[in-house]
Fold each of these.
Amino acid sequence: MSGEAAKPSSDYNWREDLARFVRMLFHFDPFWLVAVIGLSAALLFSLLAQVNRRQVQPVVYTSQDQVYAEPILRDFTGQTGIKVRAVYDSEAVKTVGLANRLLAERSNPQCDVFWNNEELRTRQLAAQNVFRQTNAWAAIGFRSRRVVINTNRLALVNAPRRFVDLTNSTWRGKVALAYPLFGTTATHFLALRQHWGDATWQAWCRALQSNKPFLVDGNSVVVNLVGRGEAWIGLTDSDDIAAGQREGLPLVALPLSEEALLVPNTVAVVRGARHPLEAQKLFEYLQRPEVVERLVAVNALEGKSRDELTERTLNVDWQELLRDLDEATAALRGIFLRQ
Amino acid sequence: MNWPLLQNSLLVAGLTTLFSATLGFIAALWLISINPVWRKRLLAVAIIALVLPPFLVTNCWLHFLGLTGVWRAWLPLNIYSLGGAVWILTLLTWPIALMAALSAWRRLESSLLESDPALRGAALIRWLLWPMARNNLVLSGVLVFVLALNNFAVPAILQVKVFPAEMWVRFSTNYFLTSDGRFDYATAAQLTWPLIVAPVLLLIVLPRAEIGWPSEHGPATARAIRRQLRPGWFWASAAVSAFVIGLSVGLPLTQLLFASRTWIELPNVLRAAPDLLWNSFFFATVSTSICVALAMLTWRLPIGLLLWLPFLVPGVILGMGLIYIFNRAPVAWLYQSGGIVVLAFTIRYLALGWNTVAAAMRSVDCNLTWAARLDGASGWTLFRHVHWPQIAPQAGAAWYVAYLLCLWDVESLVLIVPPGGETLALRVFNLLHYGHNAQVNALCVLLLALAVAPLLIWDLGRWLKSPKAGFRE
């Protein structure tokens, strides 16, 4: 090849060349597809590359409301310098998504700390040895299961005082509750079974079901239905009632009774956690009084400790409850999941 | 097995599919015979119905027809019924059939309309439009059937007991795990077969692939179709379409957009959620693009029916399966990254992209293919110049439907989402649980924006390619 031939011609214009190339790209229809796939692949690889960098950060799975949990975790990072990566639970899986995930990941745990907003699942997981052997979990603060009424529909003085009253024909088609097979409603029903005995409990469940209650898929839906007056009375969680009141719904919660259930938050360290030291620090931090106070202040919790209550509430024998869980769930399914 | 609940589920899903296909077909009749610019705009409006969250639409109808509803006095319809659930699910899903029919009719030849002047009105629909759209409509019907069958939120709020409730109970008590922590295939199979068998039967009776008739005269114009459709059909379909768009999009959207707190919360949500916005867009775009690309590469393989399986099983079971496979040392890097979400979406929605693209590839004009081969075209050149222009509408429609489903998918990713990989849909459900309704509404607005974003990007691309933009020679 001669030197002259290799030399670019003097009238070469790179701008024209570039413009021709751009025109070609736009003329080429699958360009968009190729561009999207190429860009996505590049980003995916960059995402994967971040995995190594994140190896040193502990992971927390939490079913506490993200709006409340996020600032607390951020403050923990500020105070300790330990950045926490969080996975939050979702209503879409009836609040057992993370519990299922912890069980499924048991052979190779990804989570270090489990911050749960109720107690039954934590106890179930503890029974399955998902948490470490000693000092595995702790309860913090409490919410409660409450009866809520729509004040536009029902005067406080006329509201039912005992759960057995909910089966009166006066309240036919006017009571709303979440399916008592999921979440805190299930726990509450199981605790009532202990309190009343199986025969009375089953009779009450049957009477309640035949009184045509609204059975919905979550406690927030209960609040919504009662708030808009579709139902007059609801069985739900105290924090959901607080959220409804914040939205301006005409709701009021009835006082605690001996049929009410207290639902603490729980925090647990996972067995085989990848970051045991950081997990322990977070475990301790979440039990600090000032953290609990913050949760109470935003209505995520109702109180700091059961000891501060003067009212009597349901006292649950958890061992017995866990032992009878399958039997009681089968009974609930037979009563509430029929056509 | 809870047979009454299964019967309820099949009834809800079957009726929803029937009504959704009917409304989608009627609306497509109108849209195909109007100006393409308006067609595109109305299609974009109709698609909003697909993106509206079920709980939002249900609450909207409770506002109108609930026990204390504002229409209740003069329209005493009982929304708390199986009919109510079917009605709301139909309003949520009818655009799928609309897109399916429109995509099929893109291949309508002008010569077909001109060959027989007597082919008009009902005859045009009976002998030309229906046979052309049938395959796509059956495919969209399967999709609607599965979506309705798996929906729990709408029937639960409206007090209709359905089979997914049974599945959730087992999921929250048995966890689909054996006592030693292994995935319990037996329980999972026992619970999911009813959700799989019915759609698979539908797929088996799916009409075979269309014949790739030669294209010689170019596509029919909207004016020609409108002429042949006759005014009666045109105006009747226009009235039905306007009514359906008004009820499925107008009413819920008005409630959403006219709530002042939606707009107060929007800036806060935008500030707090750039990662969520990006994650949603990224996961949906990458997954659906991979689905379509894989379909183009493998459409000849006889795997169409098999690919439906991951789409038909409940997302949480898919998630459990993925944890079981990928949460181990050699592939932990994938499990700990957003790659696992992309993989889950790809597996779940591959059937949709694959079957649509494969059907389109099987029906390309064989004359054109032979002519191009004689001219020496093969491989990529053949695909680029002959196949792609013919399959692009169907491939685009499949991509877009899968993209929309990915945007709202919570079930598949809720068990596998890595820390920091949260999507808008996940955050919506999280906030919903705690009653942050205004923030949920603001996030829904963002999701709507993401849903129409590909249409806007597509239009921008078309504009850039147009002579006005100066990019063409």
Amino acid sequence: MSQLAAALTPVHQRYLLEARQMQALSFAVHIPLVAFGIAFPVMVLFAEWLHRRTGDPLYLTLAQRWSRVMVALFAVGVITGTILSFEMGLLWPNFTGTFGSVFGLGFAIEGFSFFVEAIFIGIYAYGWGRLSPRAHFASGIPIVISGFTGSLMVISVNAWMNHPGGFHLLGGKVIDVNPLQALFGNSFLWHELIHMYIAGYIVAGFLVAAAYAFGRLRGRWGRYERAALAIPLTIAALASPVQVLVGDWAAREVATMQPVKLAAIEGLQASTRGAPEHLLGWYTDGQVKYGIAIPHMLSLLAFHSWNATVKGLDTVAPAQRPPVNVVRISFQMMVGIGTMLALLGVVYVVVRIRRKRLPESRWFYRAVVLAGPLSLVALIAGWVTTEVGRQPWVVYRVMPTADAVTGAGGIPIGYGTLLVVYIALAFAVAWILRRLARKPLPSADTPGGVHV
Amino acid sequence: MLDALPLVFALAGLTLYTVLAGADFGAGVWQLFAGRGAHAEEIREHAHHSMAPVWEANHVWLIFVLTVMWTAYPEAFGSIASTLAAPLFLAGVGIILRGASYALRAGIESRRELRVIDAVFAGASLVTPFALGAAAGAIASERVPVGNAAGALFSSWLNPTSILIGVIAVANSAYLAAVYLAADARRVGDPELENAFRTRALGAGVLAGAIALAGLVVVHADAHSLFEQLTSGSALAALVASVLAGAATLALVAHRHFELARFGASLAVAAVIAGWALARYPTLLPGLTVQQAAASHDALVALLVAVIAGAVVLFPSLALLFRLALTGRFDPDVPAREDDVGRGRRSIGAPLGARVAAALLIAGVGLLNVASAPWAHAIGVVSLLAFLVTAFLQIAPSAIGTDG
Ligand code: HDD
Ligand code: HEM
Ligand code: HEM
């Protein structure tokens, strides 16, 4: 299939599918925590900043309570991320062994981001009331920055896998490695980074808001709850419409750089001039059945032109096409949910501006309660689109996933174990979040009242 | 020379991981052996509170070692990770359980819950260093050949040498933890705890040393070439240095110079790791030298620049964290700092200009979604992000807590 001479000899792995599912599982567990790693520090710091500006103890309470949640989620992010690092070697040793020198730099720099993040989370969480307020606030800023740089680095790796560069193949050997070119001179990086970074704010924002919206439906609605709802909800409400714009950009980048992925997203069999777009439906026998066709829409969206030609799946051999329905359905889920979130966001923003208050309808709060989990679904669906749409390549058009996999036995055992551990972890996280929510509000007069 | 430099970094990272994170694991071991009753509870609490602010930072050294290894020596990394999948996976599960218990401890309300969580924590603290030590033992005893899972899945790490090194890793962790916790107890001013951990440190230290010395017999029988490497030339010198440093730390602990003892213990660990590396150099894995395994020149240079630049940020940050932790600023009963917040009671929400936000939004849409040149996209994205910030400041803060 490829001209590549991998570092280690590729082996036949009976459990390739399980290996891929294990990888996907680990990501699906890590990535929601990443969303919190990106956005939660900003919310906590904003609350602390409000306290510094207004002197209102309510905001201090809010920041302290949120910071406990932040610490707990960070710990889980750390361990699930560690598993991902292990899996680069445990599941895909030949990928890492062949291309580690090309993409490894991204992870190495990311390691330093994690250091900074971990160090300052420790200082921030245990420094309440023990550092001067200014120093304490300042200790939160590196957390925000390293959340961004960490995402930048890891996504530069993913963008490279999707759009590889920065090396040459000579007789199948990887030569002329230029890691900077590979990671940062890559036009695929920017839309992925921005789209993911904004997704972090959407997911964390709607999930936190959902908790308080749920409380409101149950009658918990004091000043504290209103502030705790408004901050994350405002963030998510603004970010969601912007995400649609960024998503449109992402789609156009994919159209030019990964035409086969786009064809899978749309279920487009043959290259078509003025291609239509299908909403919903099921891809089978080379066409989308039961879908709603909108003429010319795909050409218009992907290339901004009524009659542009969109490449179809049949531009490559069947063995080189990704599983169309998985990609298509995930994509439609993301876009469908994304559109609804954007509408909800616009409603909220309009009410805030026009009426200068929070919305009052119970339906609005019911929608927010739903928006939390749905935004998470959109996040994972988006990654499934990207990652499964890249199949059957681990390094797009260079290394097939089947060549990357480990030759070690026992993958199903590892997969099963990890599944059990992660289910337990999910329960544990739910438990700790409930417990933290139940703990009495620390009195705002004793800044040392928070003890994590 | 350039070829070997990343290895030096990785080994330095490994030493720091062994010393710093090792102490975290060891704290878990002491929780396991704390027994029951009020005194035991105190020991557990102390072990937890001393480690909680620093464990994540200490853990990242492992990530550092992994990333340096796969960037600089990808082929060797792939071979090691695939052959040693079982112990590494075990260590991974241990890391999950341990980290999760740190997170969960914040929510406990009853003794019973505490006991369950501490039991998980302690179990994971035993498994992880053992598995990582056994993996190191597999590499040391040349049971990891080059290739995709070319070595044995089990006997590569379940053999006398590997098990020995796994056990030493656990004992050493327990020792390091006891020294650290004794120092911490003294800082908090709790002589009873200090004595408890001093006794433990002495016990564990003697035990670790004894296992290590007795282990030489095991290595002699099981991995003869490793034995020869370790007992000749510069490696022998390093080994002797390690034994001396180990003995010296015991004396320091006995005389309650705990801080110095920590440095001594680090030295002992560093000497063993360095000795081992020197003994094997330039072999990395059987049949693969460091030079053969190393990535290309440019990749190594980029990595080195990144590591050095990273270190410039990292070390001051770490110094700050440890200074705060070691001077007791994170202790529960330290008096709170005077809060000078909100002195001015400034009101917020001065109009920042809804117009600016609107203009940024329109510009962003035009440049990102209508235009198609890359430069336009770049400016468009920046405009949209700027829109988000301005719009947020515009609507978020004003009277949030009071309206509705
Ligand atoms: C809250 C989450 C969320 C929401 C509401 C949306 N997306 Fe998304 N999308 C993601 C979260 C996400 C992501 C973070 O999961 C992905 C995976 C890879 C990436 O860069 O972002 C993604 C990928 C992704 C890709 C593939 C990019 C690639 O393979 O490089 C496209 C084409 C879109 N998205 C398009 C959209 C459109 C048109 C949306 C509008 C309605 C949209 N997304 C909403
Ligand atoms: C192959 C993929 C990935 C690997 C190997 C990986 C690795 C890791 C590791 C090791 C950690 C723990 C850091 C620590 O010890 O403090 C971590 C946490 C984190 N990762 Fe990932 N990660 C991956 C995917 C991602 C992705 C896709 C993103 C996001 C955009 C991301 C962003 C983060 C962030 C922000 C954290 C901090 C955790 C938190 O704040 O909760 N990672 N990751
Ligand atoms: C940013 C860093 C990421 C890296 C380096 C990365 C790397 C990989 C690798 C090495 C594989 C296995 C090989 C393959 O199946 O092609 C994989 C598969 C996969 N990843 Fe990613 N990934 C990243 C982000 C994500 C995220 C955030 C998700 C979120 C859910 C994700 C979802 C998946 C899925 C679903 C698969 C399985 C694909 C299949 O089996 O068809 N990935 N990824």
